[in-house]
């Protein structure tokens, strides 16, 4: 496939790997880029020197374009952005904030900017600020989320901006990919599916939790704090729910999640760790190489389209 996103980023397939904190390491980013998509290193809450190491490590593993996802709510965001400008990866994706003040410096460094947005208003603001494309992420996604579903958000964003739109949230296979393109997207972003890749260095317990997930297991906590997060339900999410129902102080609720994702990713703690994953987790059934996962989103899409046409013509 060749879409505006492929031309913009110099990639073979119009697919971006989600910037999942801790999960999206240099190993995963390089594997996705080598497979023809765009891999992203997730800066998350890591300090700048760690991000620099990850960028340089990724360069030893691929000669393809890759990017860095910068979480703007990180206390290290300023320093991380400076490192990114110095290291010059092909792309910067941003989340949890407005990257407007960084865009001029990023563009001067020749870096493409793809902000993750959850509303039409933010998409329009990002286009006006000079973003090269936007990632319209629906509430089905894992991690920090907005309120609008992918099905409703993507076509509205497509109608509102002229730059390429990447659909994200709940896209688990080629049927989801076809649906995203039908909504007007120029590409897709996939996160949860890549957790269960052979190159992802997440703990096996984390991967197995995704493989075992059912349709209602990806729940949202933190709505009362204004920073909702979707993760697989376990003892941690139940404790979150209890505190929120009891209207516990903001600080107590926030403190509960400190280190949770790291416990899940590194230690395999599936009970008190934060198993961030989207609603598509229930559609992930095996661990495969990234290259095979990427091809599975696009090989056979013609058959999906033919099936749609057959149903419409009956």
UniProtKB/TrEMBL annotation:
It comes from the Bacteria. InterPro entries: Aldolase_TIM (IPR013785), Enoyl_ACP_red-II_put (IPR017569), NMO (IPR004136). This is Probable nitronate monooxygenase. The lineage of its organism: Bacteria, Bacillati, Bacillota, Clostridia, Candidatus Ornithomonoglobus. Nitronate monooxygenase that uses molecular oxygen to catalyze the oxidative denitrification of alkyl nitronates. Acts on propionate 3-nitronate (P3N), the presumed physiological substrate. Probably functions in the detoxification of P3N, a metabolic poison produced by plants and fungi as a defense mechanism. Gene3D superfamilies: Aldolase class I (3.20.20.70). Keywords: Flavoprotein, FMN, Oxidoreductase. The keyword Cytoplasm does not apply.
């Amino acid at each position: 496939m060749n879409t505006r996103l492929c031309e913009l980023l110099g990639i073979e397939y119009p697919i971006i790997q989600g910037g999942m904190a801790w999960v999206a390491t240099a190993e995963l980013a390089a594997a996705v880029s080598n497979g023809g998509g765009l891999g992203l290193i997730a800066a998350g809450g890591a300090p700048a020197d760690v991000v620099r190491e990850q960028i340089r490590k990724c360069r030893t593993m691929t000669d393809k374009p890759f990017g860095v996802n910068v979480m703007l709510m990180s206390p290290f965001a300023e320093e991380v952005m400076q490192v990114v400008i110095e290291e010059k990866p092909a792309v910067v994706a941003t989340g949890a904030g407005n990257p407007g003040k960084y865009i001029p410096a990023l563009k001067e460094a020749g870096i493409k900017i793809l902000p993750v947005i959850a509303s039409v208003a933010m998409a329009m603001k990002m286009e006006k600020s000079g973003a090269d494309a936007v990632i319209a992420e629906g509430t089905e996604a894992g991690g920090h989320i907005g309120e609008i579903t992918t099905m409703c958000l993507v076509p509205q964003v497509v109608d509102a901006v002229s730059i390429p739109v990447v659909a994200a949230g709940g896209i688990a296979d080629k049927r989801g990919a076809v649906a995203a393109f039908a909504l007007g997207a120029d590409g897709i972003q996939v996160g949860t599916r890549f957790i269960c890749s052979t190159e992802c260095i997440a703990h096996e317990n984390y991967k197995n939790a995704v493989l075992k997930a059912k349709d209602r297991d990806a729940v949202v906590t933190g709505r009362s704090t204004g920073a909702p997060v979707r993760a697989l339900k376990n003892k941690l999410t139940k404790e979150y729910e209890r505190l929120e129902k009891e209207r516990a102080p903001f600080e107590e609720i926030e403190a509960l999640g400190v280190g949770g994702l790291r416990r899940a990713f590194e230690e395999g703690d599936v009970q008190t760790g934060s198993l961030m994953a989207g609603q598509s987790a229930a559609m992930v059934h095996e661990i495969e190489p990234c290259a095979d996962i990427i091809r599975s989103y696009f090989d056979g899409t013609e058959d999906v389209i033919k099936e749609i046409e057959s149903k419409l013509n009956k």
